[in-house]
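Dear H.,

Thanks for agreeing to be a second pair of eyes. The structure we're designing against is below in C-alpha cell form, covering all 348 positions.
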C-alpha cells in the first residue's frame, strides 16, 4: 500500500489503465497473447508468468502496488507475454499440436520483440517464466538489458520435481483442472502462512488465484508443464550472461535452493539475491512491497528512478541516503556484489 504518512507525497503517480492493449502475435511456433500497458515510446519491460498463470494472476499484486507501479510505468512500457493458451478466454490447444520445447518458447519471445520493433529489453519472470526469460537472455544476449527473476529455475528437474510434475501432468490430462491439481499449484506458488489451515482461512490472494485457475484450459497448462518438465540444465551457461540480474526468492519457496544455486553460477559482479521471509515462490503476489527497494536500487544502475516530491523513510530514493557510487553506470545499486538481504514481513 502507498505510504499515507504526511512526510511522503508522491507526484506523477502512474497507475495501470483500466485495461491494457491486447495483441495476438503470430510466431513460427503458434500465436501468443501480449498485453501492453503504458507508453510504447518508453523502454520495454517484458514479463512472463509461472505455470498455469497469466500476467494478471502472476503480476497484478506488484503492478497494483502504487509505489512499484509508479517506478515501473514511469520508466517502462510493459509487455506482458502469456504462455501459449494462458490468456483470458483462450481456446484449448488442439491435441494435434506438438508440445513446444523451452527453446521454442524462448524463440517466441524474440519473435514478439521483432513484431513490435523492440531492441534490448528489461525482463521479469516468475519461476517457469524466469527460466524461459533466462534462456532467452542466454540465446539472445544483445536483446536483454537486465533480468529481474522471482524464484527462478535453472537446473533440470530433480527426480522429486519430475515425479511431482508427472503426477500433475497425468491429472491434468485425464481429469482437467481438478481440486488436487489446484492444491499442488497453490503449494507451488504460496507459503503455508497464506494458504491457511483448519484454524486459519486461506488469504484473499490464494482464494483469487484458486478462482483464476478455474478459468485455465487444462490442455494448455499441460502443454506448458510438459515443456518445463523437459527443460535442460542451463547452469553452466549462466556465467556468459552479459546483463545484470536481480533475483528474489521466498524462503518458503520449494525452489529456494535453486535460486541460491543460480546466484552462485552468475558472475558475482552483476548479480544479487534477495530472500524474503515468510513468503512462497510468488513474491509478486504474496509480498510485492518487498520487491520495491531492491528494484529501485537495481534500476538506478540504469539511470532510472521513481518520481517523488518527498520520500518516505523506507525509500532509498532520498538523495541523502544514496552514495555517489550507487548512481554510476557500473553499479546496479547493489554495488555489483552478491548480497543476501532478508526482508521480514514485519517491516513491510
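And this is the sequence the design step returned. I haven't edited it by hand at all.
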Amino acid at each position: 500500500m502507498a505510504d499515507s504518512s504526511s512526510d511522503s507525497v508522491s507526484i506523477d503517480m502512474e497507475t495501470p489503465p483500466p485495461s491494457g492493449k491486447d495483441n495476438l502475435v503470430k510466431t513460427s511456433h503458434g500465436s501468443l497473447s501480449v498485453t501492453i500497458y503504458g507508453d510504447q515510446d518508453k523502454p520495454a519491460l517484458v514479463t512472463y508468468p509461472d505455470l498455469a498463470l497469466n500476467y494478471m494472476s502472476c503480476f497484478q499484486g506488484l503492478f497494483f502496488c502504487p509505489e512499484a507501479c509508479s517506478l515501473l510505468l514511469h520508466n517502462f512500457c510493459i509487455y506482458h507475454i502469456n504462455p501459449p493458451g494462458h490468456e483470458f478466454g483462450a481456446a484449448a490447444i488442439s491435441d494435434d499440436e506438438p508440445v513446444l520445447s523451452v527453446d521454442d518458447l524462448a524463440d517466441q519471445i524474440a519473435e514478439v520483440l521483432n513484431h513490435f520493433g523492440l531492441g534490448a529489453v528489461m525482463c521479469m519472470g516468475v519461476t517457469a517464466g524466469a527460466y524461459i526469460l533466462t534462456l532467452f537472455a542466454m540465446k539472445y544476449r544483445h536483446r536483454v538489458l537486465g533480468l529481474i527473476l522471482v524464484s527462478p529455475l535453472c537446473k533440470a528437474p530433480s527426480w522429486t520435481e519430475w515425479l511431482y510434475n508427472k503426477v500433475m501432468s497425468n491429472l491434468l490430462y485425464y481429469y482437467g483442472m481438478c481440486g488436487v491439481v489446484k492444491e499442488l499449484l497453490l503449494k507451488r506458488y504460496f507459503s503455508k502462512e497464506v494458504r491457511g489451515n483448519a484454524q486459519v482461512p486461506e488469504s484473499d490472494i490464494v482464494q483469487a488465484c484458486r478462482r483464476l485457475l478455474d478459468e485455465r484450459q487444462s490442455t494448455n497448462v499441460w502443454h506448458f508443464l510438459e515443456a518445463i518438465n523437459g527443460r535442460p540444465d542451463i547452469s553452466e551457461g549462466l556465467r556468459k550472461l552479459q546483463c545484470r540480474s536481480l533475483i528474489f526468492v521466498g524462503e518458503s519457496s520449494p525452489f529456494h535452493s535453486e535460486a541460491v544455486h543460480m546466484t552462485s553460477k552468475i558472475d558475482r559482479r552483476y548479480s544479487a539475491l534477495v530472500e524474503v521471509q515468510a513468503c512462497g515462490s510468488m513474491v509478486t503476489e504474496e509480498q510485492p512491497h518487498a520487491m520495491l527497494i531492491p528494484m529501485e536500487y537495481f534500476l538506478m544502475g540504469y539511470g532510472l528512478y521513481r518520481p517523488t516530491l518527498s520520500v518516505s523513510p523506507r525509500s532509498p530514493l532520498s538523495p541523502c541516503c544514496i552514495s555517489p557510487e550507487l548512481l554510476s553506470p557500473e553499479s546496479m545499486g547493489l554495488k555489483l556484489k552478491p548480497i543476501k538481504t532478508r526482508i521480514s514481513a514485519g517491516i513491510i
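Two observations from my side: The chain has a mean pLDDT of 86. The radius of gyration is 19 Å.

Warmly,
E.
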